[in-house]
Amino acid sequence: MAFPKNFLWGGATAANQIEGAYDVDGKGLSVTDITTAGSLDKPRMLTYKLNGKLEKTPGIPGAGLPQGAVGAIDPNEYYPNHVAIDFYHHYKEDIKLFAEMGFKTFRLSIAWTRIFPNGDEEKPNQAGLDFYRRVFEECKKYGIEPLVTISHYEDPLYLSEKYHDWQDRKMIDLYVKYATTLFEEYKGLVKYWLTFNEINSAIMFLDMFADKVSDEDYQHAYQKLHYQFVASAKAVKKAHEIDPNYVVGNMICGIVNYPLTPDPKDILLNFHAWEKNLFYCGDVQAKGKYPTFAKRLWNEHNVHLDITDEDKKDLLEGKVDMYTFSYYMSNVITSHKVEDKVGGNFAAGAKNPYLKYSEWGWATDPDGLQYYLELMYDRYEIPMMVVENGLGAVDKISEDGKIHDDYRIDYLRMHIKAMNRAIEDGVDLIGYTTWGCIDLVSAGTGQMSKRYGFIYVDRDDEGNGSLKRMPKDSFYWYKKVIESNGKDLD
Ligand code: BG6
């Protein structure tokens, strides 16, 4: 097996999906705090007041509120992120379990609203800073290296309303101030940082609603992305100034696209999907400039962006140190009419007859991961990390009181083998953090029943349960994988 000696094995989470304690110790409201529960058939909703009336709209992670709306909590709705798995009060127990598995790294995110409750305060909230310090110290106690996402789908609600979801360049400085606070505060405790989770989702998600979106939505998404690119680049520069040892990555939602047929129209459409959904964000963050095809993408939707010369300079000077991405599935693209479409996932393309789909419609495709790693490494030539990968499945407690999640072990085993092949082919892969190493609230559906963890958490989709933690079979399996540095996958 080819995994390098210091390979960073671990697991990944996000603040809003695990912490709970949504209004504790001075925390402000994030957009996720006004996002209701959903399911495969029922979208999550953002609840808000418009002209004094409580209303709701389908919410997708990272999306903003309608113009003029003020986010509000509806007492008749259930908000799964408010308690989540209460990591806020269980972090010691959880990190101990991660250490038992032998984690080398733990990916978690910081809730911006714990540090700056509205997002634009002069001074940070000390209780928020202290909480993450305790968490990082707990990780360090076990030799676990924190891998920290600065923004994971949870902008401060106040900023989202005021600047209509990143439609104002003032967001850049607010973000950079927040990131700088973290870089200074946790110097010596944290080494690896990610600026934005799945930054490309702003564009990618539009395809899911293709029949409903207008040019205005594209204008909004591309402008938001531009401000986030600049914010990310300025943060990278700051990080390096504060500590030259800091390693900063981007974070891309990595969905592999295949053409359905050899029809050249399909080939071209598929290639353009790679450009729009993946290379566009990857290039700006890793090469420091917009690719030539960007103009075509903007023209397609009559997009005119506010980009200054100063911005271009920042992008060039703030290139990321590593390419990090999530990988769950592949997607099939075609210009032909197809009956057999896949529902329930981010891609919503045609069905691939060669692949199996999860209960939530996500295609299991380990070869796609190898393909993605090799393609992107060749394009960017910087170290890579898979910072999310896993199978969301319903787990049942068996008669012996245990959870025998062979399906999860099979899924992870196949993907680890794929990473191994990519490393043998020369890819500089430095780490792997499986998604939802402990059961957590699904970002897409808000369900607890869509479980990814090595550790089961007793909590259901309605908020019942003791929150008790219990290792699944996969827990002991992953421990062996880490112990053997990826050799023992049985
Ligand atoms: C990624 C996100 O898109 O996929 C995570 O970064 C998310 O926040 C994960 O939880 C899995 O998606 P879901 O919808 O199953 O939670």
Short summary:
Helix content is 37%, strand content 16%.
Describe the structure.
The protein has 490 residues and is an alpha/beta fold. It contains 14 helices and 16 strands. The chain has helices at 15-18, 87-101, 112-115, 126-141, 157-162, 170-185, 201-208, 215-242, 264-287, 294-300, 309-317, 366-380, 406-424, 473-483; strands at 8-12, 45-50, 53-58, 70-71, 105-109, 145-151, 192-196, 247-249, 252-259, 323-333, 356-357, 363-364, 384-388, 429-435, 455-457, 469-471. α6 packs parallel to α8. The protein is globular, with a radius of gyration of 21 Å. It starts with 7 loop residues before the first strand and ends in a 7-residue tail after the last helix. The mean pLDDT is 95. The structure holds 6-O-phosphono-beta-D-glucopyranose (BG6). 6-O-phosphono-beta-D-glucopyranose is lined by residues 14, 17, 153, 197-198, 253, 326, 388, 392, 435, 442-445, 450.
